[in-house]
Every structure is written in C-alpha cells, then in structure tokens.
Amino acid sequence: MKREYELVYIFDSALEEAQINERLDRFHALLKTPDTPEPITETNHWGKRTLAYEIRGKEVGYYVVVHFEAEPTMLGELERALKLDEGVIRYLIVVNEGLSAAGVSAAHDSGPSPRRRDDDDEGGDE
C-alpha cells in the first residue's frame, strides 16, 4: 500500500545547486516504479540555512524538502544511497499525515500546531 512521505535533506553547503539537483534526480529515480513513474509530488528548496549545531564540521547546510508517494519497501534502497553520499549531511524521512509544507506555515501562523506523539503526557500506546 502506497503511503505519502516527507523527506528533508540537508546537503553540504559547498555543493552547487546543479550538483544538488543531480543528486536529487538520482535519489528520486530509486522511488520510481511502473505503477508510480512520478512519485515526487512537491519539492521545496529552502536554500542555505545555519544549522542549530555543527554536523560533521559544517555550520551551514542546504535544505530541500520533498513530498513523495511510495511503497514502504522502497525506502531501504533510498536510505542506503543517502547514507553513502558524502554530500548529504543529514536526512529525515517521515510519514506525511498532514499538511503540505505551504499548509504547515499557514497553520503555524493561524494558531497552535497539532500535538506530536512524543508530546503526549499520558504515555499512551497510540
């Protein structure tokens, strides 16, 4: 069963945008199947941002947020490729259960954000 995911990449800020786009194309090709020839639904380049803390000696990273649809079994090869690429400082893949990146900023401006599972004070099995 296909699921919607959000992937946040933090690339080495020394990379040129063309090099980042080449890497994105290579990573996204791993998600393509005959049933889903175009799995990427949204790509947002946030650009260079100062990191909250130093990672691998870097203080600045180039952020890209991608929304895509894929089978959970497809993620293994993608994660392997991300771990092997030295241009990727960090990445995070999460199941996208809510708003798009544009919707998140609008929701953030209009009121409180939804609770995250780890914010639950009761420690339920949700």
Short descriptors:
126 residues, alpha+beta, Alpha-Beta Plaits, four-stranded antiparallel beta sheet, 26% helix
What is this structure's SSE topology?
Layout lengths: L2 E10 L4 H13 L10 E16 L2 E13 L4 H10 L3 E8 L5 H10 L16
Question: How does this structure look, described?
Answer:
Helices cover 26% and strands 37% of the residues. It has 126 residues and is α+β, with helices and mostly antiparallel strands. The protein has one domain (3-97): Ribosomal protein S6/Translation elongation factor EF1B (Alpha-Beta Plaits), CATH 3.30.70.60. It has a four-stranded antiparallel β-sheet, covered by helices on one side. The two termini are 21 Å apart. 13% of the residues are buried. The model is unreliable at 104-126 (pLDDT under 50).
Q: Stretches where pLDDT falls below 50 for ≥5 residues? A: 104-126
Helix content range: 25-40%
Q: Give the strand order of the largest sheet, numbering strands 1, 2, ... along the chain.
A: 2-3-1-4
The quaternary state of the protein chains shown equals single chain
Question: What is the chain-wise order of helices and strands?
Answer: EHEEHEH
What's the gyration radius in Å? 16 Å
Number of domains: 1
